[in-house]
């Protein structure tokens, strides 16, 4: 895409401009994160805090940003579980 500075994922396009792989759920046009699914349909990692369904990443030690910040600031009790992927 002319003027776009993001890295191309596929078809010479970044995720924002239609690059990457489309979610395998019928009718969804979002880009996959993992296992052929977008975030909405269960792709990617989820927060390890019990009951939390927010997206997580390795940079936040597999917690969502909210729980990572709470734990870092000592504002919550650590209650989490290992999710099997």
TrEMBL record:
Transmembrane segments: none
WRKY19-like zinc finger domain location: 1-19, 20-43
Superkingdom field: Eukaryota
Name of the molecule in the record: WRKY19-like zinc finger domain-containing protein
Pfam families: Zf_WRKY19
């Amino acid at each position: 895409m002319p003027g776009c500075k993001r890295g191309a994922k596929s078809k010479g396009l970044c995720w924002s401009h239609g690059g990457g792989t489309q979610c395998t759920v019928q009718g969804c046009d979002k880009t996959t994160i993992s296992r052929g699914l977008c975030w909405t349909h269960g792709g990617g990692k989820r927060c390890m805090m019990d009951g939390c369904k927010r997206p997580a990443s390795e940079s936040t030690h597999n917690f969502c940003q909210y729980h990572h910040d709470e734990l870092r600031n000592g504002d919550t009790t650590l209650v989490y579980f290992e999710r099997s992927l």
